[in-house]
């Protein structure tokens, strides 16, 4: 009986004949498709305005479904590539790791799940915001904080506390190995930094070397494009970090400090071996270099790697130019500068110091002696400031002051003659260098400091780095930012202060430099000594009129062909400040370019 | 005696996945059986050595198609052990939710699978449809229906969507009503009894010989050997459930055990819904840096969980780099699915071969991996 009952039990299933089936009708699949869930991982959508073409999606893709495609119609900007990801849906596994790791948040997935086509090519697709069917399908899967695959917070750099102002101790402490490894692990190797760096340094490559704990390899990467890595690891303007793709949503990689980690921590034998591995026998010719600043040093190093004999002329006692006589010790310690210079010296570069071209030896003599000459003389003069009282004996200028301070710290000069109350005019990095150096010297000499600053620019638009402002104020510098100097107030032949007016605007309607003031808002900054740091300019005395006539100089800068060659004076090359304005990394880049240019020029002459 | 060679699979409605058994038969009786794996061999273990720790997430669910989440769980659990990472409390409960839902899905499908070889197709269609309703919920939680890629090292990938627990509750209520109908339809039916009762035996000594775990083992030796009980992971020690056992493992007993386990899963899920923390993080970082450079400290670990078919484990070796050094998979159905067929399918009738695959719970990709 029981068995018979069970036998017919399936008949109960007939009741479902009258119920609505859970299956979807075929026509509904195409005409009225069921919508995917809110988080559905469907086809990709990519906002091209946000996308920077970094290719991180391509790197994470476990199935190699993504490839970056160059889009000719897109412009290349700083921090953006003209590439966009293309998806091969024959390979894609719809895991959405690309969405989770997208640095710019441009990549999303839609709720769409149907793509039927006889055309196999249509399964390869470069999505824009409208998606594969160009129908602005509803958004499905997006990244959120939980699914984030990037590390957006940089490893914090330790700084000396404010007691640093009592000495010239280096402020930034540098990364330890653990910190550097953690920081290097954040990099996504997009290479946008390389495009932005004036010297096009192999940044992702050397960061990877750190990550793999291969410091010798890292040095090799550094010296391919920059022989001043000790200097640049400390005071570079780090344009790369501004372009870093991680900075879009988080904090940029500390590229500069990682570079410093490499040069500070590589064992000396490895360091030397890596640097000298590029150098070849000097068989190709002789090149003279005028000025041993960044561009000169860079040109010298790369000319040695290209097989040239190189003589570098320097008017001062030690080579280095701005790096030996400009940057303050607390940012750029002597040992770092000397490490860079001594490495270049070890490659066989011959430094002829205390020799000023133009007086001790003429440019014509150099032309005679060398196959080519490179000019890297920098902006060596301070720009004068035309205000009443500027001819007073207690008005000092940034460049000679900073140079004397470096010599003083080297024990080859006496301390600059500084007063108890000083004011610095200027708002750039050099002005802060002057002010903070003054502060340290005052504490050493008087036990207390009184440094004030005045600049045309308001604190929000100060040309100096933010860290200079913050650290400077922390150390006790008082700034009148947004106040322009009117006159140096002199009483009884002594400076008593600097009269400043509130700045209304710096540039006029035609965008020319022409500050206007609100004279009702003015005050006198008390000081007995005034330091002017309102810019630098070049000194072209060494260049004879005959050559000058053939050259084109616009606003103090020499116009050159590609590779730094001066068009009508083919044996003469120029680079650095005098071509691109003051920035050390520009000098390094120019020096390298010119070395290549000189090689090309001399090799073509041989044929 | 004349032998005839018959192929069961890889394309055969009675076969589970792309797997094949070459049967040498005399009349209806199988004289020799040669399991032929490899149709699904994609070299998973080797591929994993060439993928980033995170990138493997897209690969591993494919090792068992119908119950992919166990792969994610053992992988995540192993890495967390190596990296010494504590998973957030809520993530443990979400993981249990996912794992039990997955168990429900595969058990229901397995229950329906009996319909194919026995001619009771109604239950097969019901099971497939019922599984799809569970997949709907997976789609809402994880963004995908089959390969969820949701349980990740350090927790789970996303917070639960709002209101999902109510939907799971509703599903459980539905199953409470629906699943007994499966029993009426199939497990009590005399025809099906004829096919699997006192047939396709798995004696206790074979269990020990082959290393069978899971339902096969529990229904044969009468011991509650279930990793959720004997070696609790996630928060299984904080929920109450029974482990159905038996001392006589024929096809029917195993199906009945599976049937009972469905209700235990429902019971666990109800407790998960009740006890899951309402707030809290669901993921911690297992490594610093971007996912392109995540590393796992050097070392080796065996990580195992109770899958629907028994003990499922990964042996993970890391050398501290961005990719695993070696991962070996213990497929839960490897013993009965490969070794068992070769040795013990002999003597059965041709039509028992499909029933063997179903009642033993064989998942062919995990044999091939």
Predict the CATH topology of chain B.
Answer: Cytochrome-c3 Hydrogenase, chain B
Largest sheet of chain A, in brief, is: 6 strands, mixed
CATH superfamily of chain B: Cytochrome-c3 Hydrogenase, chain B
Order of helices and strands of chain B: EEEHHHHHEEHHHHHHEEEHHH
Number of helical segments with 4 or more residues of chain B: 14
By CATH reckoning, the class of chain B would read Mainly Alpha
Question: Which overall shape of chain B is indicated by the principal axes computed on the Cα atoms?
Answer: globular
- How many helix segments of chain A? 22
Short note summarizing the structure:
The complex is a heterodimer of chains A (607) and B (369). By secondary structure, chain A is an alpha/beta fold.
Question: Could you explain the architecture of this structure?
Answer:
The complex is a heterodimer of chains A (607) and B (369). Chain A is 32% helix and 18% strand. Chain A is an alpha/beta fold and 607 residues long. Chain A folds into three domains: 23-125, Alpha-Beta Plaits (2-Layer Sandwich); 162-366, Fumarate Reductase Iron-sulfur Protein, Chain B, domain 2 (Orthogonal Bundle), CATH 1.10.1060; 382-536, FAD/NAD(P)-binding domain (3-Layer(bba) Sandwich), CATH 3.50.50.60. In chain A, strand 16 (494-507) and strand 17 form a beta hairpin. Chain A is elongated. The model of chain A has no long low-confidence stretch (mean pLDDT 92). With 369 residues, chain B is α+β, with helices and mostly antiparallel strands. Chain B has a single domain, classed as Orthogonal Bundle (Cytochrome-c3 Hydrogenase, chain B), CATH 1.10.645. Chain B has 14 helices and eight strands. In chain B, the strands form three sheets. Chain B has a three-stranded antiparallel beta sheet with strand order 1-2-3. Chain B has a three-stranded antiparallel beta sheet with strand order 6-7-8. A two-stranded antiparallel sheet of chain B has the order 4-5. In chain B, strand 7 (310-318) and strand 8 (326-330) form a beta hairpin. In chain B, helix 3 packs antiparallel against helix 11 (251-275) and helix 5 runs antiparallel to helix 6. The longest helix of chain B is centred in the N-terminal third of the chain and has 25 residues, at 89-113. Chain B starts with a strand and ends with a helix. Chains A and B meet through helix 1, helix 3 and helix 4 of A and helix 5 and helix 6 of B.
């Amino acid at each position: 009986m029981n068995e018979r009952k069970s036998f017919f039990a399936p008949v109960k299933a007939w009741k479902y004949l009258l119920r609505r089936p859970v299956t979807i009708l075929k026509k509904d699949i195409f005409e009225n498709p069921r919508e995917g869930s809110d988080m559905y991982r469907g086809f990709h959508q990519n906002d091209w305005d946000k996308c920077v073409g970094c290719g991180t999606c391509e790197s994470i893709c476990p199935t190699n479904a993504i490839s970056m495609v160059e889009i000719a119609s897109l412009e290349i900007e700083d921090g953006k590539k003209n590439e966009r990801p293309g998806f091969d849906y024959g390979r894609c596994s719809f895991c959405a790791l690309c969405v989770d790791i997208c640095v710019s948040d441009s990549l999303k997935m839609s709720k769409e799940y149907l793509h039927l086509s006889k055309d196999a090519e249509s399964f390869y697709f470069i999505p824009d915001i409208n998606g594969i069917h160009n129908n602005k399908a509803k958004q499905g899967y997006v990244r959120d904080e939980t699914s984030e695959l990037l590390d957006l917070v940089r490893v914090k750099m330790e700084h000396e506390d404010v007691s640093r102002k009592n000495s010239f101790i280096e402020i930034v402490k540098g990364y330890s190995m653990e910190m550097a490894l953690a920081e290097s692990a954040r990099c996504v190797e997009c290479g946008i930094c390389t495009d932005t760096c004036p010297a096009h340094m192999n940044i992702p490559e050397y960061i990877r070397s750190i990550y793999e704990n291969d410091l010798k390899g890292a040095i090799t990467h550094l010296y391919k494009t920059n022989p001043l890595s000790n200097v640049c690891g400390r005071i570079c303007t780090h344009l790369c970090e501004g372009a870093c793709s991680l900075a879009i949503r988080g904090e940029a990689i500390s590229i500069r400090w990682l570079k410093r980690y490499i040069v500070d921590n590589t064992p000396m034998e490895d360091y030397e071996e890596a640097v000298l591995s590029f150098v070849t026998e000097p068989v190709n010719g002789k090149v003279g270099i005028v000025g041993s600043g960044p561009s000169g040093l860079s040109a010298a190093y790369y000319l040695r790697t290209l097989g040239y004999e190189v003589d570098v002329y320097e008017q001062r006692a030690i080579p280095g130019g701005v790096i030996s006589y400009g940057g303050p010790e607390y940012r750029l310690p002597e040992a770092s500068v000397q490490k860079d210079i001594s490495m270049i010296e070890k490659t066989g570069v011959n430094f002829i110091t205390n020799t000023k071209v133009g007086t001790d030896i003429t440019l014509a003599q150099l032309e005679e002696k060398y196959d080519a000459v490179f000019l890297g003389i920098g902006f060596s003069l301070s720009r004068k400031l035309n205000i009443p009282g500027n001819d007073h004996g207690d008005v000092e200028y940034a460049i000679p002051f900073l140079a004397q301070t470096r010599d003083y710290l080297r024990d080859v000069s006496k301390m600059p003659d500084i007063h108890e109350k000083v004011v610095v005019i200027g708002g750039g990095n050099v002005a802060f260098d002057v002010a903070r150096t003054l502060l340290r010297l005052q504490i050493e000499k008087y036990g207390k400091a009184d440094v004030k600053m005045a600049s045309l620019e308001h604190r929000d638009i100060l040309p100096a780095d933010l860290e200079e402002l913050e650290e400077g104020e922390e150390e006790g510098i008082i700034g009148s930012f947004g106040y322009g100097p009117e006159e140096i107030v002199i009483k009884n032949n002594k400076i008593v202060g600097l009269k400043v007016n509130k700045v209304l605007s710096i540039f006029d309607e035609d965008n020319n430099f022409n500050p206007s003031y609100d004279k009702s808002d003015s005050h006198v900054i008390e000081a007995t000594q005034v330091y002017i740091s309102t810019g630098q300019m070049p000194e072209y005395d060494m260049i004879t009129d005959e050559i000058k006539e053939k050259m084109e100089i616009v606003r103090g800068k020499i116009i050159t062909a590609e590779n730094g060659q001066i068009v009508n004076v083919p044996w003469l090359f120029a680079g650095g400040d005098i071509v691109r304005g003051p920035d050390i990394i520009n000098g390094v880049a120019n020096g390298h370019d010119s070395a290549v240019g000189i090689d090309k020029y001399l090799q073509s002459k041989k044929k | 005696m004349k032998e005839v060679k018959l192929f069961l699979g890889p394309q055969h409605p009675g076969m589970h996945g792309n797997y094949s058994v070459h049967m040498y038969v005399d009349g209806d009786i199988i004289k020799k059986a040669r399991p032929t794996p490899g149709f699904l061999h994609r070299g998973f273990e080797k591929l994993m050595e060439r993928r980033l720790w995170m990138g493997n997430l897209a690969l591993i669910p494919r090792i068992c198609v119908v119950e992919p989440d166990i792969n994610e769980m053992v992988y995540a659990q192993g890495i967390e052990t190596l990296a010494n990472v504590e998973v957030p409390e809520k993530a443990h409960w979400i993981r249990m939710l996912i794992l039990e839902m997955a168990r429900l899905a595969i058990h229901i499908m397995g229950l329906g699978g009996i319909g194919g070889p026995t001619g009771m197709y109604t239950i097969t269609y019901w099971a497939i449809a019922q599984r799809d309703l569970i997949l709907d919920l997976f789609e809402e939680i994880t963004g995908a229906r089959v390969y969820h890629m949701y349980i990740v090292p350090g927790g789970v990938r996303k917070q639960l969507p709002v209101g999902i627990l109510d939907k799971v509750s509703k599903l459980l209520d539905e199953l409470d009503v629906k699943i007994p109908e499966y029993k009426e339809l199939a497990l009590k039916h005399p025809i099906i009894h004829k096919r699997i009762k006192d047939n396709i035996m798995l004696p206790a000594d074979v269990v020990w010989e082959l290393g069978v775990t899971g339902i096969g083992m529990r229904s044969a030796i009468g011991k509650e050997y279930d990793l959720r009980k004997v070696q609790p992971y996630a928060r299984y020690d904080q929920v109450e459930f029974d482990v159905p056992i038996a001392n006589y493992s024929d096809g029917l007993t195993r199906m009945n055990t599976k049937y009972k386990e469905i209700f235990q899963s429902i019971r666990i899920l109800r407790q998960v819904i009740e006890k899951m923390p309402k707030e809290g993080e669901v993921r911690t970082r297992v490594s610093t840096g971007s996912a392109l450079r995540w590393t796992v400290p050097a070392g080796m670990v065996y990580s195992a969980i109770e899958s629907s078919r028994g003990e499922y484990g990964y042996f993970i070796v890391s050398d501290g780099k961005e990719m695993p050094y070696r991962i070996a998979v213990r497929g839960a159905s490897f013993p009965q699915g490969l070794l068992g067929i070769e040795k013990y399918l002999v003597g059965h009738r041709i039509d028992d071969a499909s029933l063997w695959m179903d009642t033993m719970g064989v998942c062919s990709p995990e044999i091939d991996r």
